[in-house]
């Protein structure tokens, strides 16, 4: 399925939101479009980075264009590319696996490396609640 490109001004406006506002957008957008975007090198090598506190973080975005624009330089050097995760797979497989491996989620980091880092259980609950709202 082809993803509709975001307008440059829309991207700029979203990147200028606070981390909390980007988190809210992430939850609404991912629930509505039933997809999440991460970065991968080749097919199965997801990008996970270590933050300043020493925690492993899996960065995710609500749209491929945002993931591409906000890809960190060290990940670009690895030739990392945005990759779609269907929301059902994200909720049922990805989040539980990351929680088991003690990996946090970096929600909608911007080009300045600013974003919320949250626990997978909290993220799963927020997405499931939003999905219920969208489909009611």
Question: How far is it from the N-terminal to the C-terminal residue, by CA?
Answer: 25 Å
Q: Tell me the Rg in angstroms.
A: 14 Å
- Biggest sheet details: 4 strands, mixed
Are there runs of 5+ residues with pLDDT below 50, and where? none
Helix content range: 40-55%
By DSSP (H or I, 4+ residues per run), the number of helices equals 6
N-to-C series of helices and strands: HHEEEEHHEHEEH
The coarse silhouette is globular
Describe the structure using short key phrases:
alpha+beta; four-stranded mixed β-sheet; 6 helices
Could you explain how this protein is built, in words?
The chain contains six helices and seven strands; from the N terminus they run H-H-E-E-E-E-H-H-E-H-E-E-H. It is of the alpha+beta class. The strands form two sheets. The chain has a four-stranded mixed beta sheet. The longest helix is centred in the last third of the chain and has 16 residues, at 120-135. The chain is globular. The mean pLDDT is 92.
Quick overview:
Helix content is 46%, strand content 22%. The chain contains 6 helices and 7 strands; from the N terminus they run ααββββααβαββα.
Question: Which helices and strands occur, and which strands form pairs?
Answer:
Layout: H1 8-15, H2 19-33, E1 35-41, E2 45-46, E3 49-50, E4 56-60, H3 64-69, H4 73-76, E5 81-86, H5 87-100, E6 103-107, E7 116-118, H6 120-135
Parallel strand pairs: 4-6
Antiparallel strand pairs: 1-2, 1-5, 3-4, 6-7
Helix pairs in contact: 2-6, 5-6
